[in-house]
Specification:
The protein is about 5% helix and about 35% strand. The strands form eight sheets. The chain has a five-stranded antiparallel β-sheet with strand order 1-2-31-30-29. It has a four-stranded antiparallel β-sheet with strand order 3-4-5-6, with no helix packed on it. The radius of gyration is 21 Å and the shape is globular.
């Protein structure tokens, strides 16, 4: 690590009990001009940029733990270039921002297994106050590093991870080589898919990984799921794969997107759930239209889909986790139907964002209040036209553990992509 080691002592704990990282500590920075009002003159919550150029910083996906349990340290990745695909030898730095020490960057490691949308799956290990993990490539295979940020002790397991169980003891993962071959921007460069010529391989799919021993086993094959149920608009030339895995809040099940790509590049998607051993597979969204999702609770999934309840357009629907279960539309015409969804504790608020809209290409993280149907915008962030396709910058809003601040990725002035912190205490308090 570079610089002073992070403090996890008694004095630090006392300070963190007294002040929320994006609260009173942030107000002190406001006097120095680090906080600003995002967007136009409407009453938007205060936002501050917590990383600086010349290097670019981001975190990636919305469903990973970015904040440590105290909300003092915020994970991120650092890179020296933008606007092209990663090459096999392109290195990103792994680090965290200390919100109590003037947003100081603490360097922690590096990776050559990453993409612009999800990075290297960097995240805090659930249930472990001081441990993080991320994917990398070593000796001709994708691996996962697990680091104790307090001691610097690191170990490596011989499989990458995708989603980590709530107890931090296991993970599920997809085949990143196959993802890279069918959906550039979501897999990793550096290793060819050995089954690239197979439409639905029997020995590729979702693996369960023991994070304590490093052992793994295939629990769902691509071929098995491709044979299950009816494939909408089936074509003998479609190529099947898995992407976007997420454990339920109690760890009893996980979500996976089963996708297939047509020869013309078009894709359709089913959303399925299963137990961590691969049993009891349920096709929750069978019609081929499934996108961003989040668990509301162990029995319900909020997901974006279409052709439900008479709604032909894309919308947000709450699905019961069973085949043919109850479906309810949420926030019709108010909650954006293309954003990245998270529930706040208590399930009264949903955090979301938008893709670029209008001539100004503004992305708008927002909160939706379920009981009242109100939407509250958190800022409007311009995405320059250079940020398109694979290397676009989605805001991917991530919630702090206290649910009082949100971190997003967005370009900042002439410094490229950087991480921004939004104080939402005045909205959800």
């Amino acid at each position: 690590m570079n610089g002073t080691e992070p403090s996890f002592g008694a004095a630090a704990r006392t300070g963190r009990r007294e002040f929320l990282r994006c609260g009173l500590a942030g107000l002190a920075l406001a006097a120095a001009g680090r906080w600003s009002r995002a967007g136009d003159s409407r009453p938007l919550p205060p936002t501050r940029v917590i990383t600086r150029g010349p290097r670019h910083h981001w975190f990636g996906y919305y469903d990973k733990l970015q904040f440590d349990p105290t909300d003092r340290y915020v994970l991120g990745m650092e890179v020296s270039f933008e606007h092209r695909s990663p090459a096999p030898d392109d290195v990103i730095r792994i680090g965290m921002v200390d919100l109590e020490e003037n947003d100081r960057w603490i360097d922690l490691g590096e990776s050559v297994a990453w993409n612009w949308q999800q990075g290297c799956m960097l995240q805090w290990v659930p249930g472990a106050a001081k441990k993080i993990l991320w994917n990398d490539r070593q000796d001709g295979r994708f691996v996962c590093h697990i680091l104790d940020v307090a001691t610097g002790k690191r170990r490596t397991i011989p499989r990458p991870v995708y989603s980590v169980s709530p107890d931090g003891k296991s993970a599920v993962t997809a085949d990143f080589r196959r993802i890279a071959s069918v959906r550039p921007g979501y897999g990793y460069a550096g290793l060819e898919d050995p089954r690239a010529d197979q439409l639905a391989p029997e020995d590729s799919g979702i693996e369960h990984v023991d994070l304590e021993t490093g052992r793994s086993r295939l629990i769902l094959s691509v071929a098995e799921i491709a044979r299950m149920g009816k494939i909408p608009e089936n074509d003998p030339a479609v190529k099947h794969y898995f992407n976007h895995l997420l454990f339920s809040p109690d760890g009893s099940r996980f979500i996976a997107l089963h996708r297939w790509r047509y020869p013309d590049g078009r894709r359709l998607t089913r959303l399925l759930t299963a137990r961590p051993d691969g049993s009891d597979v349920r096709i929750v969204i069978p019609n081929g239209y499934a996108s961003h999702f989040i668990w509301r609770d162990p029995g319900h999934i909020l997901a974006q889909s279409r052709h439900w309840l008479g709604e032909e357009n894309w919308g947000n629907f709450l699905f019961e986790d069973r085949e043919g279960g109850h479906v309810e539309q949420i926030g019709r015409g108010v909650l954006d139907s293309g954003g990245h969804l998270s529930y706040l504790p208590g399930k009264e608020w949903i955090l979301n964002d938008t893709y670029p809209k209008g001539k100004e290409r503004l992305q708008t993280p927002h909160l939706y209040h379920v009981p009242s149907g109100r939407r509250i915008d958190l800022g409007h962030f311009h995405l320059p036209p250079a940020y398109r396709g694979e290397w676009r910058v989605d805001t991917h809003p991530r919630l702090s553990n206290s649910a009082q601040c949100v971190c997003i990725d967005a370009p900042h002035e002439d410094e490229g992509r950087q991480m921004h912190l939004i104080d939402i205490r005045g909205i959800v308090a």
